[in-house]
Design goal:
332 residues, alpha/beta, 8-stranded mixed sheet, 12 helices
């Protein structure tokens, strides 16, 4: 039997900073998805190093010597794609503001779009807490959002504040493992095989991610998706639907809520992928905070030093402002 492999999942610095490029053939979720899964990360120390390696990756590598990070990663992804019977698209996972996640992640996203312009590209991005400790996080988010809007078909945006708040209601101490598990469960609800997308004659061929693009964000101007997930062992389906509808964040009562659902054997779970005006609140926060710092010329020397100009920031501000206006006009 021919093994169907139609997507590549690339992970970039969601939580940790020290990992290596490797294959995980025994990953159970990979087997369920039918994916060739690679894990992408650094082979060198990149701590605050958005400024040393990732800025240059983001802005086109002004200097030689570190382009092997991008080239090596792109080469590994290409090898995995060549192993596929059918390549439909790529799912990237990375942080929105971390040095490697935002800088190298944005550059890799651009490279994937240039290399495979006709295939789908989804970015699953984790936004930091709004009270984060990095003074550069709003700048990084601004630049990354611009790249995503330009190069992807869909951006699945997850907020650390929401994940943390949800877990704190269930446990006293929240670990990184618990947060990662919560995020993975939500993403699994829209990416793992569903009964409605699985042919009766054989296994799933992995169309679920691309169906989400078609049904939830068909308009290029509105491509930001939020995923909501609930799993209960003692609730009936109607109870799950009611609880989910009450918990979804909306900017107003006009939010669009298309949904995809998953039901496993031990617990009933419901997953909703929504594309609504609720994204505006976060985008406006990033935009306004970045504008204030930019007007004061705060921290710009960290970026100018490695080739990111003031014009790049102006362009990013304009792009994010356009996204905000697109959403307001779409749901007005």
């Amino acid at each position: 039997m021919t093994k169907h492999q139609d997507a590549i999942e690339t992970r970039s610095d969601m939580i940790t900073n020290e990992t290596t490029l490797h294959q995980r053939p025994n990953d159970k979720k990979q087997q369920l998805l039918g994916l060739n899964t690679t894990s992408m990360s650094k082979t060198h120390n990149c701590k605050a190093s958005y400024k040393k390696s990732t800025y240059k990756c983001y802005h086109g590598l002004k200097k030689s010597g570190e382009d092997h990070i991008l080239e090596g990663t792109a080469n590994q992804v290409r090898k995995e794609i060549e192993r596929c019977d059918m390549y439909s698209g790529c799912i990237m996972m990375h942080s929105l503001t971390g040095g490697t996640g935002s800088g190298l992640g944005s550059r890799l996203c651009e490279a994937m779009r240039e290399e495979y312009p006709m295939n789908h590209l989804i970015c699953c991005t984790v936004a930091p807490c709004l009270t984060g400790e990095s003074p550069l996080q709003n700048y990084n988010a601004l630049l990354t959002l611009q790249f995503h809007f330009r190069n992807t078909d869909c951006v699945v945006l997850t907020y650390n504040d929401d994940v943390l708040g949800k877990l704190q209601r269930k446990m006293e101490s929240v670990s990184f493992d618990a947060m990662n598990t919560s995020i993975a469960s939500a993403l699994g609800g829209v990416f793992l095989p569903t009964n409605t997308m699985t042919p009766k004659s054989g296994p799933s061929i992995g169309l679920e991610p691309w169906e989400m693009i078609r049904s939830v964000c068909p308009l290029p101007a509105n491509k930001f998706v939020q995923v909501h997930y609930i799993a209960k062992s003692k609730l009936f389906w109607a109870g799950l639907q009611k609880q989910m509808s009450q918990s979804i964040r909306r900017h107003d009562s006009k939010g669009n809520i298309p949904k995809l659902t998953v039901l496993d054997q031990k617990t009933a779970s419901i997953t909703v992928a929504s594309n609504s005006e609720s994204i505006v609140e976060y985008l406006e926060t990033v935009y306004e905070r970045s504008r204030v710092k930019f007007a004061a010329k705060a921290y710009l020397h960290w970026y100018n030093k490695y080739g990111v100009t003031n014009e790049d920031f102006e362009e990013a501000c304009d792009a994010v402002e356009d996204i905000i206006q697109n959403y307001k006009s779409a749901f007005s």
